[in-house]
Amino acid sequence: MTTTAGIVCKDGIVLASDHQASSGYYVAHKHAKKIHKITDNIGMTIAGTVADAQSIIDIMIAECNLYKLDHEQEISVEAAANLLSNILYGQRIYPYMLQTIIGGEDKSGNNMYTLDPLGSLIKEETVATTGSGTPMAISILEDNYKEEMTINEAIPIAIHAVRASIERDVASGYGIDVIIINKDGYKKISESEVTEVLKQSGKELA
Fold first, then answer.
1. N or C: which end of the chain has fewer CB within 10 A?
2. Which residues pair with 130 in a beta bridge?
3. CATH code (residue 74)
4. Alpha-carbon distance 63 to 174, whole Å?
5. The one catalytic residue among 2, 45, 114, 134
6. What's the pLDDT tens digit per position in 127-163?
7. Catalytic (active site) residue 49
């Protein structure tokens, strides 16, 4: 499976994931991309079947681009989350086998939602995780989360949450990706910055 994590901050959203794609007990890929840019202000994590996840990502990007063309403005995070919920619910008889976190920044502030394969939609006010590494990651997130936390404060917490799952979950591994979304847009944290955070804590990945 996977580990993905999200944190709602006062100045944006932080999303993080591991790199491993698994096929049963086999490591199918060591550099899988599990966080995707949907618009300039919205990102989405994926955990589950790769083909289903790729299909949903393509649909969401296309639909959000069409929204921008029709309305001459970016879609809001809430509207994008509701769109995704409707797509998933519409396929509930033959569901897309995935979990996702969708989050970003818009006129209403910083918003994050989680969805299951049937389209169940939950607005997350603090932290969220999906995937097989959830039991390990959520404990780190909840123990360290603070109200009014900044992105700079949240980045190390997200990194260590995913690191904890990599150490104990056989379906998570091979590195950590971190994305931040704020008023300046969508940005990926460099691999060297992630490595430095782990190095400073003395808990580098094996």
1. C
2. 4
3. 3.60.20.10
4. 32
5. 2
6. 999 999 999 999 999 999 999 999 999 999 999 999 9
7. no
